[in-house]
Amino acid sequence: MLQPYFLEHMVNLIHTPFHLFSTDKEIIQKFGARDIETLIFEKNPEFVEKVFSQKSEQHPVIFTKSSLVYAIFAQGLSKGAVIIAGPVTIGPLSQEILIQIRRYYNLGRKSGYIPPVCPLDKFVSGVLLLHWHLTGEELSAARLWKRNQQNYTATMNLQNRISQDIFERQESAGLHNPYEQELRELDSIEKGDIQALTKSISETYEGEIGVLAKDPLRSHKNVAVGNITLASRAAIRGGISVEKSFSLADSLIQQVEEIDNVPEVEAFKREAQFVYARLVDEENIQGGEKQKTKTNPLIGQVKDYIFSHLHDPIQVADIAEHMDINADYLSHLFSSQEKITITNYIRREKVRRGENLLKYSDYRIQEIAFYLGFCSQSHFARAFQQVVGMNPNEYRRKFGNRKKWKMK
């Protein structure tokens, strides 16, 4: 049974408007919807008819129309009634697309309508929560998408398209680049071996990179995204913090999207691999020779915590409390496996972030010091001198303002 209190708080959680429709397709009640969002349904009866035709008595249906995302619920309501969640967009839209949306929904170009933003995973969580509220069924995201497959043409045609593409590939007798060569690249990154990575990238082989889009630029960008993703995982296996590796991948992939020509994409893709290999190499050099035994998963949790709190003053006790573990045991474990104390590792990571900011940002040294949780600029300068061997001013004069292929 629908509880208005529940939907009111759903609006606050996922920033999504909801409309309750009667059997006659009339709006009975709305939650968190602005007048202009109600107009979308009132001025487009054919759209409402199409939405109603897509409803399912068994599960919520998620669909998209003109860049906007909706979900329709017919479960747990009086016969014929539906709830429509949306419209939302899963990310910011360009002015051109906003104008197209206003035209598509007959809102007028001058309406100024901007849809609310809700990331897709958050929207899906809201859909699952409302479905549970209406029916009592604990539906997982995987099962929700499985049940929605019939609504998506690409999903329904997936197997047919795979068979067709593989047949055409076999007919053209084309070969992909060898898997073993790719493994050598990833192994080089995992070990932080710059020389081996250079050698593996320079190998000649029969075969070619797959075509991942009809547009050549888009295809090369897709390959670059895949390479960066694989490199980020190899770096994690090499000892880089999960959060650091993932955050770096986010930055690199966003930068790939900003490139407008194929040669630069190719050069950027290769440099991104070397960025990861150098990170692992630095980790190995500064951490000393590590034990060959498998790293305890607690080590990764420590590194992730430190990476996520670099702008705060960090104490070992804070990390231990967050992980609900004895601080002395954690310190001993970290030191024995990483060959560096947690305190020194924190200082090293803060200085590394400081190096990046000194190279690629215009922040004053005092601002960088406070951003990284140091109590004063002089405290930051001392730590920086100990790790890098020069003070921040000297470092900025020598390495500052390097704009190309910047990373977070």
TrEMBL record:
Residues 300-398 form the HTH araC/xylS-type domain. SMART domains: HTH_ARAC. It comes from the Bacteria. Pfam families: HTH_18. The keyword Nucleotide-binding does not apply. InterPro entries: Homeodomain-like_sf (IPR009057), HTH_AraC (IPR018060), HTH_AraC-typ_CS (IPR018062), Tscrpt_reg_AraC-type_HTH (IPR020449). Keywords: DNA-binding, Transcription, Transcription regulation. PROSITE patterns: HTH_ARAC_FAMILY_1, HTH_ARAC_FAMILY_2. Gene3D superfamilies: Homeodomain-like. This is HTH araC/xylS-type domain-containing protein. It comes from Blautia parvula.
